[in-house]
Design a protein that fits this description.
It is a single chain. With 256 residues, the protein is an all-alpha fold. The protein has a domain of 173 residues: Alpha Horseshoe (Serine Threonine Protein Phosphatase 5, Tetratricopeptide repeat), CATH 1.25.40.10. The protein contains nine helices and no strands. Helix 3 runs antiparallel to helix 4 and helix 6 runs antiparallel to helix 7. The two termini are 22 Å apart.
Length: 256
């Protein structure tokens, strides 16, 4: 369905990948599939903003911002957190000579960890974009692979110059959506230890924990994750209630 808040095509996601709006209530209110608004943004994924525009959905990145990270948006991609099933498709193309057709398999996503800090951050941002695009096309395997490569490049940048909460949070998001949940939670806690009021990190931590609660097989563990998620969402909402991140945190908190 299309998000009633920003018009983004969220497909079957529970929360809008672009603005974080809870789509569960909106779906329940519809008697038939939602249609694209007559006037609104295109239904393709928008390019993430720079770190300096972290909590904003409007505005353009500053020119020449070489070492800036993404907007560290909160990305609710429920299908990304699920186990990825990779199906191998072998296409046999007949030919007069009887020789095998050339392979059509996509090349693996490279994680080049060489270069300066700014080069690494820019490269990781591109891989992050690639992961978002893949998930928006329902390509879970491609999204996990791209976010995995992004995580490795962010790791190299963080090792060179740790401290930027935007880069640190993007690193955590990349870890989480490449199926490294425990390490993602550890990384976001590193960011929050030095920057306890960084709203994007608090919001993303809440989303990580909410996903862990949903996937936990043990009820006691699920309850523990859920309690921690509530704390993170409450903190994120209190930092700037009027921001998009604050509103999303409040909405997520009310849905628990």
């Amino acid at each position: 369905m299309y998000c009633p808040e920003c018009g983004h095509d969220a497909a079957e996601a529970k929360f809008c990948p672009d603005c974080g709006t809870d789509l569960t209530t909106a779906r329940q209110a519809l008697r038939r599939p939602a249609k694209k608004p007559a006037a609104g943004p295109p239904a393709k994924a928008q390019r993430p903003r720079t770190a300096r525009r972290a909590a904003e959905r409007r505005g353009e990145p500053a020119p020449g911002a070489a070492a800036q990270s993404h907007s560290v948006r909160w990305i609710w991609l429920g299908f990304a957190a699920a186990a990825v099933v990779v199906v191998a498709l072998v296409v046999a193309l007949g030919s007069q000579s009887g020789e095998d057709a050339p392979s059509t398999a996509a090349a693996p996503v490279a994680a080049d960890t060489s270069g300066s800090y700014s080069e690494l951050v820019d490269r990781a941002n591109g891989l992050y974009d690639q992961g978002i695009a893949a998930f928006n096309k329902d390509d879970s395997a491609g999204g996990v692979e791209a976010f995995g490569a992004a995580a490795e490049v962010y790791r190299a940048a963080w090792k060179q110059q740790p401290g930027d909460p935007n880069v640190g949070t993007d690193f955590a998001v990349s870890l989480f959506y490449s199926q490294h949940h425990d390490e993602a939670l550890q990384q976001v806690d590193v960011v929050l230890k030095a920057n306890p009021d960084f709203q994007a990190a608090n919001l993303n931590k809440g989303i990580f924990l909410k996903t862990e609660a949903d996937e936990a097989k043990d009820e006691a563990k699920a309850a523990e994750f859920l309690a921690q998620a509530k704390i993170a969402f409450k903190k994120a909402a209190s930092i700037d209630p009027a921001s998009d991140a604050g509103k999303s945190a409040s909405s997520l908190l009310q849905s628990l």
